[in-house]
Automatic annotation (TrEMBL):
GO terms for cellular component: plasma membrane. It comes from Streptomyces gancidicus BKS 13-15. One of its GO terms (molecular function) is kinase activity. It is a multi-pass membrane protein. The keyword Chloroplast does not apply. This is Sucrose phosphotransferase enzyme II. Keywords: Cell membrane, Kinase, Membrane, Phosphotransferase system, Sugar transport, Transferase, Transmembrane, Transmembrane helix, Transport.
């Protein structure tokens, strides 16, 4: 089967298991996940979905997220969208419901209603802060592929320059690697307006002011502006202001002149505010973020690394990691790399080490061991969702010990930052082994790679040791290692029987 047919087959297998095209309200994807808006989540056949060979796991959030892995998700998504459109085009109109009485409600229908109510309650419980962070993530996530591609090219160019190879080619590579970063504010402005309900091109137009060379002729707060001052934070603020102005204009501008007045007023008002306020303020905030990161790692590198590496998985579970995306981007824009990502990537190393310990501690649990075998290699490459949601989190204690592994790995990398050796990444998105091509620092690529690799090893070992010795109670081990035809011990805690864990896996 060709690659194209394989991805089409994956999309075709997923569609009926999520309730068909009629149940799909939106389709998008990020680095690893197919993100679906669904009308009724009770129609999802989750166990059958998880059983598909291409599916590494599922995550329920504001969207229903199917983990397919990097590369695969970008190829499956357009096939899935095409199938949704085709099925909608071929679907006959539904007849109106007959008047009068209805059939008795079945137990299955009651269960479906209960699932829908649970989903509705979960949606109501979404806090405004978390929803805001998701919207911020929606602005930056589409930029990640370009950040990765340009970051790898920048690393390759740096290597060629240091080796003094291909001197006629390196200027071209430098231009290719730097072009996107020079205009990233425009893309941020475009996506911001799109996300918050404005006209995307107007958001890009307002944000483009920040990178225009002639802003150096403008004086604000007693000093001349610099092209790019404020960066992505300034673009974010400028585009948000543009959306607000645009929406206000549409309330009072007559339709006959809307096409002339609204864009003009939006760009003019937002542009003046950007030049005489937002660029300066955002520039100060960007400088503070860079200085704060440098100070944090210079004065408390090991301790800061321990906390960051240990808390990153819980932050992911709570959705709070999305607040770090603009910070990473700001650091990359200012210093050329983010020193936070290699530390946070240690959380994945702790997760891998914990999975290896679980595999050895549960020799008779074929269900969990099978899941680990299939999810371990994606885990090494930085795709941690299958191990998190399929193994450690359902088991409980191993999730905590995996965090401990990430903490020790983060402390190791943070220590070297404290000693003056910056270990950074030129892009966000990848972690684990996939981060190697994006590494950069202030003491040469070889030393940076060596420190990061050693940090991964520390994370693996710490996660393994912590989980092997402290990840299970005796009751859990007895219960989870029980043969399928053996009864669980009577004193076993009801939290993690083999059947229940197998269902979650």
């Amino acid at each position: 089967m060709s690659e194209e047919n394989k991805h089409r087959a994956t999309a075709a297998a997923i569609l009926p298991l999520v309730g068909g095209a009629a149940n799909v309200t939106s389709v998008a994807h990020c680095m690893t996940r197919l993100r679906l808006g669904l009308r009724d989540r009770s129609l999802v056949q989750e166990e059958a979905l998880k059983a598909l060979p291409a599916v590494m796991g599922v995550v329920e959030d504001d969207t229903y997220q199917i983990v397919l892995g990097p590369g695969t998700v970008a190829r499956v998504t357009p096939e899935f969208e095409a199938l949704v459109e085709a099925e909608r085009a071929d679907a006959p109109e539904e007849p109106a419901a007959p008047a009068g009485g209805s059939d008795p409600v079945t137990a299955e229908e009651l269960a479906a209603q209960g699932a829908a109510l649970r989903a509705e309650r979960k949606a109501r419980n979404a806090t405004p802060f978390k929803l805001f962070l998701r919207r911020i993530a929606n602005i930056f996530v589409p930029l990640i592929p370009a950040l990765i591609g340009c970051g790898i090219i920048a690393g390759l160019n740096g290597l060629l320059v240091n080796l003094q190879w291909l001197p006629a080619v390196t200027p071209a590579l430098a231009a290719i690697a730097s072009g996107f970063m020079a205009l990233i504010a425009v893309f941020v402005g475009y996506n911001t307006a799109k996300e918050f309900g404005g006209t995307p091109i107007l958001g890009g137009a307002v944000a483009s002011i920040i990178v225009y060379a002639k802003v150096a002729d403008v004086e604000a707060f007693g000093q001349h502006l610099s092209p790019g001052q404020g960066g992505v934070l300034g673009a974010l603020a400028a585009a948000c202001l543009g959306v607000y102005v645009e929406k206000r204009c549409r309330r009072w501008v007559p339709e006959s002149v809307d096409v002339l007045v609204t864009p003009t007023v939006t760009v003019l008002v937002s542009g003046l505010a950007t030049l005489f306020g937002l660029m300066f303020l955002a520039g100060e905030v960007s400088s503070w973020i860079g200085d704060a990161a440098d100070w944090l790692l210079a004065h408390g590198g090991a301790g800061a690394g321990f906390l960051l590496g240990g808390l990153f998985l819980p932050l992911v579970m709570l959705g709070l990691h999305q607040a770090l995306i603009p910070i990473h981007t700001t650091l990359i824009e200012g210093a050329g790399f983010t020193v936070l990502l290699p530390i946070l990537a240690m959380a994945g190393a702790g997760q891998v080490g914990a999975a290896l310990a679980i595999y050895l501690r549960l020799p008779r649990n074929t269900s969990i061991r099978t899941t680990i075998r299939s999810a371990l290699w994606p885990g090494f490459l930085g795709v941690g969702e299958p191990l998190i949601y399929g193994v450690s989190l359902p088991l409980g204690r191993p999730f905590v010990t995996a965090c401990a592994g990430g903490a020790f790995g983060g402390a190791f990398v943070g220590l070297f930052n404290q000693l003056g050796t910056d270990v950074g990444s030129t892009a966000i998105g990848p972690s684990g082994w996939a981060l190697f091509p994006l590494l950069d620092g202030n003491h040469g690529l070889a030393q940076t790679i060596a420190i990061y690799a050693a940090g991964l090893i520390v994370g693996y070992v710490a996660g393994f040791v912590a989980t092997y010795w402290f990840g299970f109670t005796r009751t859990m081990l007895a219960e989870l290692n029980a043969a399928p035809d053996e009864p669980a011990p009577a004193s076993a805690a009801p939290l993690a029987t083999e059947d229940r864990v197998a269902e979650k896996v």
